[in-house]
Amino acid sequence: SAGPAAGQRPSVTAEGKLDLEVEATRLKQLFQAGAGDGASGRGSLKATFRTDGDSLPALMRGLTGTAAVTIKEMQGELHPIDDLSASLDARPDATSLTVDARFPKPQLEADDAIAIVARNRGETAVTNNPVHGELRCKGHLWHCLAAGDVPAELSLVSGDSRLDFDGRAAFREGPGQVSGRLSFAGKRLADWDGLVGDALPQYGPYKLTADVALTPHRQTFSDLALTVANSDFSGRLDMRWRDKRPWLDANLRSKRLNTEDFGSQNVEGQQFAEKVRVPTGWLDWVRGKAQLAVGEMTIQHGFTMSDVDTALESDGRRLQVHRYRAGL
To answer: What's the CA gap between 20 and 193, in Å, rounded?
Structure first.
């Protein structure tokens, strides 16, 4: 067709249906785990972009416009969804991606620890709250994709919980790194059941803030402050991946720790561990060391200890206690 009139920017509009077939081979490589064979679904696409220039780089640098995608009932071994809509807004000074999604409700077995504690507290064991997310890059779309070091903001909302991140994504060389300030808070952790695809504990209210540095092989949380109900933690957590297993190095302090804030309580008159099959496979999977100092620790039936100081280490075969001191 004829080109645009003088002074008018070329525009492209696309609209149609989508039949999705997603291969998961690359995802397996990225996440070092079995991500399934793929996923399929149906949806629609609508996009309108404008640009001008005499070369591909110039066209990309001048690109502005919007795109909207909806996906229905994505199936397969990847994370399934019931309904997802995403929109991209590319402007000269900023690029934003907005996502709204609803996920299938996770299923719980009758003897699942989370289900039993929830029933005992009179709570709903599983939720599938819709998730709203916004990712904002402080720059043009071309800059966000090509610069290799991008300032970005992320927010996620599910139920009464919210996650906010303000930092940078650097991917010019190597596997890339995301670093910045994280804030994660809400009435109960189980608000994220749908997004995670499994039942989460009913811990809450909770709040976590930390400086984070994330790469595919190492995740560091420094200047960490966590509160769960009446319990608190502060310190540093460093997780490195070796042979597809995490190595943890934790140094944490707590003014007050109440184990009932984390679900350690009686269930129907019996001890929690007697009623529920508690998995122990995590000891074979997680390796590392931890130091914990607690000013006041309360366990079941109001039994309290003070000035708890302990150092633990796991090599994947056994758990060793190197130091333990406490006052009654």
So the answer is: 25
Q: pTM for the whole thing?
A: 0.77
DSSP secondary structure letters along 259-280: GGGGT-S-BTTB-HHHHS----
- Give the Cα separation of 222 and 114 in Å (integer): 29
Joined tokens for residue 220: 């560091």
Q: Which of 5-14, 56-65, 233-242, 246-255 has the lowest mean pLDDT?
A: 5-14
Burial of 268 (0-12, 13-18, 19+ CB in 10 A): exposed
Check residue 35 and give its pLDDT.
44
Q: Please name the residues in contact with 281: beta carbons below 8 A apart, sequence gap of 6 or more.
A: none
Smallest CA-to-CA distance from 203 within 233, 181, 247, 246 is with 233
Measured over the CA atoms of residue 288, residue 165, residue 133 and residue 149, the dihedral's sign is negative
- Residue partners of 161: CB distance under 8 A and separation at least 6: 184, 185, 186, 187, 188, 189, 191, 192
